[in-house]
């Protein structure tokens, strides 16, 4: 395999300015999205309070567990559950 000389990278002032402007823009979008989420959570909680049948009293975590089939309840450690129904 041939070895070549490392490529020289130069960071220019324009590049840093562009990076800062893009970074500020992304931060402002994130702040706007967070504000909308906070307002959206408040309105959705008000709506669920008015119509309780929509969420059925389940938390977000419970809904996710139900959707993926996760059952966090451990099985009891009794002899039949450990060894099954063994008959001699």
Q: Summarize this, please?
A:
The chain has 88 residues and is mostly helical.
Strand content: under 5%
The Rg value, from CA coordinates, equals: 28 Å
Helical segment tally?
A: 3
One letter per element, helices H and strands E, the order comes to: HHH
Oligomer: single chain
Q: Count of DSSP E strands?
A: 0
Task: Please tell me the overall pLDDT.
Answer: 77
Fraction of residues in helix: 55-70%
Biggest pleated-sheet summary? none
Pick out the low-confidence regions.
50-54
Instruction: Indicate the structural class.
Output: mainly alpha
Terminal Cα span = 69 Å
Coarse shape: flat
Key features?
single chain; 88 residues; mainly alpha; 59% helix
Please describe what this structure looks like.
Pathway: Protein modification; protein ubiquitination. Residues 78-88 have a biased composition (Polar residues). This protein is an all-alpha fold and 88 residues long. The model is unreliable at 50-54 (pLDDT under 50). It is 59% helix and 0% strand. The protein has helices at 13-50, 60-68, 79-83. It has 3 helices and no strands.
SSE order and pairing:
Elements lengths: L12 H38 L9 H9 L10 H5 L5
């Amino acid at each position: 395999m041939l070895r070549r000389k490392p490529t020289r990278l130069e960071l220019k002032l324009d590049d840093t300015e562009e990076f800062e402007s893009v970074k500020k823009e992304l931060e402002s979008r994130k702040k706007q999205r967070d504000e909308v989420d906070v307002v959206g959570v408040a309105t959705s909680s008000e709506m669920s309070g008015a119509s309780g049948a929509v969420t059925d009293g389940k938390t977000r975590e419970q809904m996710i567990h139900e959707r993926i089939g996760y059952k966090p309840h451990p099985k009891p450690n009794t002899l039949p559950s450990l060894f099954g129904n063994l008959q001699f």
